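User: Sequence recovery, please. Input:
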């Protein structure tokens, strides 16, 4: 396992460096679109929980207005559509907003494959992951839980899946997660915007 972890870190760095060399023009185009669409910075920084529960700041392309409540998962917002920008809707649907995390990988804060980093104040998720030692590995750009439900998963199931990844972690398993992620993104599976209570209310209103 230790040998693979070293190999995994080297591979993460090499692949991320190659990705940055090829994608920087695309990054520039997206940055211009974001700036033209709404006021605020191009990047969004948010405190997350990394390996061994050390905090770091994750990078994303900004998809929401600057007056959006901080440190709150989007699916917990009462009406996220009010805060998501026009360009943000496209970026979130295609998961392109996650691309700047390549920088986090280059810095040694994240891996390409691993449990998605929890918000610093998601204490219930952090505690649940402790049971499965899922906080002992680098968080990932994508992960086993991501392709098995993403935002739709309850915390206990998400933590259990993260634990399964820790147990099964290998080069072959990482390749499996990577390709399943591609298909999942293409189908926009598991993306949840707004609390279930609000969505239910909207559906009831439409059918009333």
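Assistant: Recovered sequence (208 residues):
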């Amino acid at each position: 396992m230790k040998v693979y972890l070293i190999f995994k870190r080297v591979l993460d760095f090499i692949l991320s460096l190659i990705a940055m060399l090829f994608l920087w023009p695309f990054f520039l185009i997206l940055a211009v679109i974001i700036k033209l669409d709404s006021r605020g910075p191009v990047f969004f920084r948010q405190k997350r929980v990394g390996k061994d529960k050390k905090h770091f700041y994750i990078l994303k392309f900004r998809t929401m207005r600057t007056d959006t409540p901080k440190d709150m998962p989007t699916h917990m917002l009462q009406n996220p559509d009010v805060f998501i920008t026009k360009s943000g809707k496209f970026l979130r649907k295609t998961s392109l907003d996650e691309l700047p995390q390549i920088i986090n990988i280059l810095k040694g804060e994240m891996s390409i494959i691993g449990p998605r980093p929890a918000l610093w104040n998601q204490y219930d998720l952090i505690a649940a992951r402790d049971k499965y030692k899922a906080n002992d590995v680098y968080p990932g750009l994508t992960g086993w839980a991501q392709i098995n439900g993403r935002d739709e998963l309850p915390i206990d199931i998400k933590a259990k899946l993260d634990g399964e990844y820790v147990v099964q972690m290998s080069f072959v398993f990482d390749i499996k997660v990577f390709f399943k992620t591609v298909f999942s993104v293409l189908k926009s599976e598991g993306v949840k915007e707004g609390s279930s209570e609000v969505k239910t209310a909207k559906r009831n209103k439409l059918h009333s």
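Residues 195-208 have pLDDT under 50 and may be disordered.
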